[in-house]
Amino acid sequence: MKSKTLGSALIVAGTTIGGGMLAMPLTSAGIGFGFTVGLLVTLWLLLCFSALLFVELYQTVDSDAGIGTLAEKYYGTFGRIVSTAVLIIFLYAILSAYVSGGSSILSAFLPTIIDEETTSRIAGILFTLIFGAFIIVGTKSVDAINRILFTTKIFAFAFVLFLLLPEISIDNLLEMPINNALLISASPIFFTSFGFHGSIPSLNKYLEGNVKALRISILVGTAIPLIAYILWQLATHGVLSQTEFLQILEQDPTLNGLAKAATQITSSSIIGASVRIFSGLALITSFLGVALGLFEALEDLLKRVNIEAGRLTLGAMTFIPPMLFAFFYPQGFITALGYAGQMFAFYAIVLPIAMVWKLRKQYPDLAYKVKGGNTALITALIVGVFIVIVPFLINQGLLPQVVG
Fold this sequence. Notes:
Blueprint (H helix, E strand, L loop, with lengths): L2 H14 L2 H10 L4 H25 L9 H41 L8 H22 L1 H26 L5 H4 L8 H4 L1 H5 L8 H7 L4 H29 L2 H10 L3 H12 L2 H36 L6 H18 L4 H30 L10 H23 L9
Helix pairs in contact: 1-6, 1-11, 1-14, 3-11, 3-16, 4-5, 4-14, 4-15, 4-16, 5-14, 5-15, 6-14, 12-13, 13-14, 14-15, 16-17
Family: Belongs to the amino acid/polyamine transporter 2 family. Mtr/TnaB/TyrP permease subfamily.
Protein name: Aromatic amino acid permease
Subcellular location: Cell inner membrane
């Protein structure tokens, strides 16, 4: 695999293995291992399919075109406005979740400054400034640091599994859902666990419009997280019983709560510390990929309205709103991911299907087409629309609330 293709695949994997993965134990504690794995595989197939639709779309535009440009090509100015707005809201929501989660983890390693709230806010600022700097420098710097962090994260993940897997209980793995409807309630949050689609324009530009390289990057880059997620669920569901885990998370529904649960149930401070370190690395690599996508989206938007903005200005526009969210909602990790999943369902499913539907009529002889035809498009669309309305059903009390 060529260097850029490998780097792009690792950006996909690094972006994916992040907040969504860390939220899985928090949101699936009452679902059970078997049902959780089934949900994972289903959503992987769905989101891999939708990502490949973007590959199909990029065959007819310049390599540096943003999603807004693609939408405008098929749905005019209205398409650009809607797609750009949804993309930016989604990226801001998920980046806010990552800054909130990052500040939660980093604050555990910092001495208390005045009080816990102030320490958390300072941790959020440090987290954003340090890792946001790589985005401002450029995609090459993100690729370089991501390779280092991703490799380290894999070793940390392997170490966590090494510690947790011997502790698993078959009885825990065989537990049935406390409430079957939780499987549906958790779907928008699990949905974001394969959410790298906002980075596709940046990757396509980086790969200079090479369709084959982009397709390989997506397939390899999403297969790695799927395997990691299944192992992660095996470890967490096997070690943590539903009842004990839910009781701990009710007290602290954050990533620190996850580490506390691992420490308390296994009686091992080493396991708790290892979970914290892995969580931090996972958040950073995911933060980098999502922030890169938001940075590029804002740049594409400003160019469209003929506004020249330097990279520092774009950096401020990218990172100040998520930092403010982390300031005022320090425990908003799960909440932000829920809203992100809702926006992401539209952006990653509804939008590409709508564009590909027109694309195939205008360009019937494209060299690359995603398999499945109209049946696959309609099926994916129905699932995507359903995921969009899940939060509304939860708010109306028709579906149970997940932890956090």
